[in-house]
Amino acid sequence: MKKLYSFLVLMFFSSFGAFAQGSLSGRVVQADKPLEFASVYLPELGKGTMTDSAGYFLLDDLLPGTYRVEVSMMGYRKSVEDWTIPSKEELVISLQPLDTSLEEVVVSGTLQEVSRSNSPVPIEVYKDGFFKANPTPSIFESLQTINGVRPQINCNICNTGDIHINGLEGPYTMVLIDGMPIVSGLATVYGLTGIPQSLIDRIELVKGPASTLYGSEAVGGLINIITKRAELAPIVSVDAFGTSWGEVNLDLGLKTKIGERVHSMTGINTFQYDNPIDNNEDGMTDVTLSKRISLFQKFRVDRKNRKEFNVALRYLYEDRWGGEMNWTPEFRGGDEIYGESIYTSRWELFGNYELPTIENLNFQFSANGHNQNSVYGDMLYLGDQKIAFGQLTWTKSLGNHQLLSGLAYRYTYYDDNTPATASAGLDQNLPSEIHLPGAFVQDEIQVGKNKSLLLGARVDYNSVHGPIFSPRANFKVSSSDQSLIFRLSAGNGFRVANVFTEDHAALTGARDVIFEEELQPERSWNTNANLVKKFYTNSGAFLSLDASAFYTYFTNRIIPDYETNPNQIIYANLDGHSVSQGVSLTTNFALPSGLEGNIGATFLDVTLTEEGITERQILAERFSGVWNIAYSFSRIGLKIDYTGNVYGPMRLPLLGELDPRPEYSPWFSIQNIQATKVIGKRWEIYGGVKNLLNFLPPANSIARAFDPFDRGVDFAEDGSVIPTPGNPNALTFDPSYMFAPNQGIRGFLGARFTILD
User: Does the keyword Signal apply (predicted)?
Assistant: First the structure.
């Protein structure tokens, strides 16, 4: 009887324990699609399972409590979540791919929407998260951690600049907004800082000539800024930050719907910096003071035929100045106190309309007007530029051929108060008007299952310089799983220069601008080899290697000569050739621990050869490196971003043999760190330090900063400078000795607020 009692007690407690135990069930998905063979693991118990073909999993015999659930799968970011058992709800885990770049849709390489892996043209894509890692008030500054790309500030006083790709100056870089050539001419110098990050969905970057599709200016490469789609933007987004220098930036976005079919997106950006600082004690402002506002409005119409129709408008106004610390607007344009004051007023209109036809016909259009009112000391520059552009494209699939053809027309009007628009022999102004019609054709041929060949050609007729022909060819081969991709390309580029709208040095300082001849269009031939290899490990890590080798040969290159006469800038076509060549390597990685990022390096050799003499190009580094490294503490919603760059020596523009300043810049690095804390679903608080190493260019970067009107300079009859006891180095006032930002270490703090649908 005693044995029977003991047996019944044991059975009772065993049954109670079994009754008290629970289970963990759920499914694992990616973008609502089930993931098979995902690992589900409870580290406290050392117990786990795998998902089935429908993404479901089940773990039985679990005591009530809260468990840490780790879900991992090769090629996906590890997910960690706390879950309480028992629960009436099903646990659904959504895994994020470690790398989605291969399947990102790109348009810049072929003017057609294709996945990045299928594009025969190597394209780099940077999403909005990349720019949040180092928040800046403009697109110009935000490009400083992209491999092979360098924002170059060209003036120590007014801080205007351009974007260099693979060592080539800004005029060789074409900047597009939604595929439209809006940022050109005057905007390449004065309009880049007015493009707010809040408008950006992604940036597509193509290195090397793209003139076959985009015409003049796309010689060194192109940057296509893709704005957000109106219907997909957040309902409300606010991003504001300030720095310890007194800079304040505000981005505001608003999405609305007008009626049943019209989606609207409004963007407002304001930036203000009104705190003169002279840390290097040269008597001049270290950083230009600025007040800027940019208004953006985009509409998208839902048409019954589901064809695309969108239109956008943007207006920019900026008032910036730099110069002597005691300058005020009352001295604007005078010769008492030196200041460089620039008023920019700019409007833009651009859009896209798919024709309601059976054939795939698409019309893109843009127009912009740019008015510039600037003074550089007592030198007045008034510029007025208007550009209109239209392009009609037709696409057709025929078997293994993907055809694209198009007609384009571009009209450019430019007028100013400089010799650029003065008519020879006549005492009157003669504005420049250029008509540029063009036609292009492209055939992408699917040679095999994993091979494609792209052939294209374009012809433009410049109303000043005549016809210009640009061919190109691209070949791509890949492995069946797209983990290995090789691309080979060759093409031709051309550029018609307008010095006064592209080169700020022609407007500032004390130099005279000399044209030795009528400038002819530049030509270039380029080859590029690109290899992409992606690795996935069983532990859930991801690594990609992206390597390129490039070579560009220029003829008729337009070179500003700063060295023949220190009092002049002489423009002429190069009587010889120029070469830009090099290699670059970028690696992207993501680890299950939360560490991710990219590291890149570029080795460059940019030279000019004339009369058998070869020399390095001014302001072209031989080595550059960049990095963006982040670590996420997912359980507490905290992310740390460490970004930076490093540059090797560049040859700098000296004012003659007696100039005591170094001919080459030193090695330098700009590094930044940021912490971002997510609070709920709508708030982010971020802050950090920029220029951690407090690197600054030499204090004597501005030659004779104490004498900006050259009152203490003696000139010979030929315009050259005469050495004197008061000026033994034969210098003139010149702010073009510039290779790095002149802003030291500073803290920043900001907040983001977002309401999604």
Answer: yes
% the chain with pLDDT above 90: 46
Residue 529 burial class via C-beta count within 10 angstroms: exposed 0-12, middle 13-18, buried 19 and up? middle
Contact 623, 148 (CB under 8 A): no
Residues in a beta bridge with 388: 367, 411
Six-digit token string for 710: 């050259």
**Do 476 and 452 contact (CB within 8 A), yes or no?**
yes
Structure tokens given for 573: 């076509």
- C-alpha triplet 134, 180, 353: angle, nearest 5°: 120
DSSP 8-state code for residue 158: T
CA–CA dist 208, 433 (Å, integer): 28
**pLDDT at res. 503:** 57
pTM recorded for the entire structure: 0.85
- Those residues with Cβ within 8 angstroms of residue 534's Cβ, 6 or more apart along the chain or in another chain: 99, 102, 482, 483, 484, 542, 543, 544, 545
Q: Are 87 and 55 in contact (CB under 8 A)?
A: no
Distance CA 581, CA 563 (A): 24
State the burial class of residue 724 (Cβ atoms within 10 Å of its Cβ: 0-12, 13-18, 19+): exposed
**Ranges of H-type helices in 434-519:** 499-502
Which helix (H) or strand (E) is 189 found in, with range?
A: helix 187-190
Please provide the DSSP assignment of 264-287 as one string: EEEEEEEEEE-----TT-SSB-SS
Question: Tokens for 668?
Answer: 């330098």
| Lowest model confidence (mean pLDDT) among 1-10, 50-59, 201-210, 442-451 | 1-10
Contact between residue 618 and residue 650 where contact means Cβ atoms under 8 Å apart: yes
